[in-house]
């Protein structure tokens, strides 16, 4: 029996690797005619290393300013503050240099600049909403100012057009998305990642694996996405173990970056993610769990929950991890142990008294409806959480 489906290519121009970040960015700015390049960067990279200064020097008179006040989980308050700084600098190109929160901040700044949003409440109504008919995007215009991403971690959020922003009033992460919020270019420079703390590096790598796993298991994937994601999952499996053994191995770091790129191919092409993403976003926004630890504690349980309807996909995933005769859930749990990351919710401070709230909030996510095994209500989310307790 033949299968029906489609593949959607994202509105991104290129991924650049093998060049120093400053050189690659200068060439990009020149090519695009950008004269006011505004940097949104990791505070650690800006204040404790010379990496951002190298980039500023490479830009020369095209450099317009720097903002380094993005907190974990990218709050609305930081978004409007960064927007004000970018507007004052008359930015014509935004560049994110840092981890997932910095990349998310740059994306939402594009939207805020387009709509002159200067207050947190100005974001109300623009978020992606889950409906029985599918996700409903906010009604906003395509941003005229675009962005480039230079990631220092592996989480892979730069490979899609959506951004996660926390509404601190409700302690709830929300998704904002527009195709033109996709970075024009992504620059991969393993040198910058040498400054990333080891636990963050390894944890964000497992977050990148989340993209590949959920894309391969999605009923809305396709052969191209599956092939690329499976190769990315192997790259990350091998590369993360290698950098755990030797953090100074730049070849292994680049291997991880390439794995993150490939594992995000489904996300990049709008194959919907599932329960691990939905729950992970709530763990971060509602329970303050670092984003880079969410996959480590949740994915084995999500794989177990989805096993009845994704058995063949999970066999292919286990094979990519060099364990063709094992269950993917068991192999991933063992992998987390080898990386010395937390493997249970109790290890990241999430107790069972919070499960019902997490379940209710997770039902608001567009990814919950896209999970390969149907999730009927909060009680199903709680069942998954109990497996991870």
Automatic annotation (TrEMBL):
GO molecular function, one term: metal ion binding
Signal peptide: none
One Pfam family, short name: Fe-ADH
The protein's name: Maleylacetate reductase
The organism's place on the tree of life at top rank: Bacteria
InterPro entries referenced in this protein's UniProt entry, alphabetically: ADH_Fe/GldA, ADH_Fe_C, Alcohol_dehydrogenase_Fe
Domain Alcohol dehydrogenase iron-type/glycerol dehydrogenase GldA, residue spans: 14-190
Key words, A-Z: Oxidoreductase
Family, per entry: Belongs to the iron-containing alcohol dehydrogenase family.
Residue ranges of every copy of the Fe-containing alcohol dehydrogenase-like C-terminal domain listed in the record: 204-387
């Amino acid at each position: 029996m033949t299968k029906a489906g489609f593949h959607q290519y994202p509105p991104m121009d290129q991924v650049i690797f093998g060049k120093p970040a400053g050189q690659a960015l200068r060439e990009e700015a020149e090519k695009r005619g950008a004269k006011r390049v505004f940097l949104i960067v990791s505070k650690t990279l800006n204040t404790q290393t010379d990496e951002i200064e190298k980039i500023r020097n490479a830009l020369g008179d095209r450099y317009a300013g720097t903002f380094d006040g993005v907190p974990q989980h990218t709050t609305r308050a930081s978004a409007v503050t960064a927007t004000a700084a970018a507007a004052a600098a008359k930015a014509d190109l935004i560049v994110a240099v840092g981890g997932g929160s910095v990349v998310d901040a740059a994306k939402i700044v594009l939207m805020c600049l387009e709509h002159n949003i200067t207050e947190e409440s100005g974001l109300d109504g623009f978020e992606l909403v889950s409906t029985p008919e599918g996700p409903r995007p906010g009604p906003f215009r395509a941003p005229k100012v675009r962005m480039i991403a230079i990631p220092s971690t592996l989480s892979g959020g730069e490979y899609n057009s959506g951004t996660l922003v926390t509404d601190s009033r409700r302690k709830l992460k929300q998704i904002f998305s527009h195709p033109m919020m996709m970075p024009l270019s992504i620059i991969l420079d393993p040198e910058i990642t040498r400054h990333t703390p080891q636990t963050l590096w390894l944890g964000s790598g497992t977050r990148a694996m989340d993209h590949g796993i959920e894309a391969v298991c999605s009923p809305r994937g396709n052969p191209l996405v599956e092939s690329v994601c499976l190769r990315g999952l192997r790259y990350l499996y091998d590369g993360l173990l290698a950098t755990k053994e030797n953090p100074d191995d730049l070849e292994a770091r680049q291997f991880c970056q390439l794995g993150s790129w490939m594992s995000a191919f489904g996300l990049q092409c709008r194959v919907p993610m599932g329960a691990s993403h939905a729950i992970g976003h709530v763990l971060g926004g509602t329970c303050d769990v670092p984003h880079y630890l969410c996959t480590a504690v949740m994915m084995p349980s999500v794989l177990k929950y989805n096993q009845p309807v994704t058995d063949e996909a999970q066999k292919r995933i286990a094979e990519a991890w060099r364990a063709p005769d094992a269950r993917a859930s068991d192999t991933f749990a063992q992998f987390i142990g080898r990386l010395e990351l937390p493997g249970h919710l109790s290890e990241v401070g999430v107790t069972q008294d919070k499960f019902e709230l997490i379940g209710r909030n997770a039902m608001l996510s567009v990814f919950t409806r896209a999970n390969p095994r149907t999730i009927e209500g909060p009680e199903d989310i709680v069942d998954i959480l109990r497996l991870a307790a």
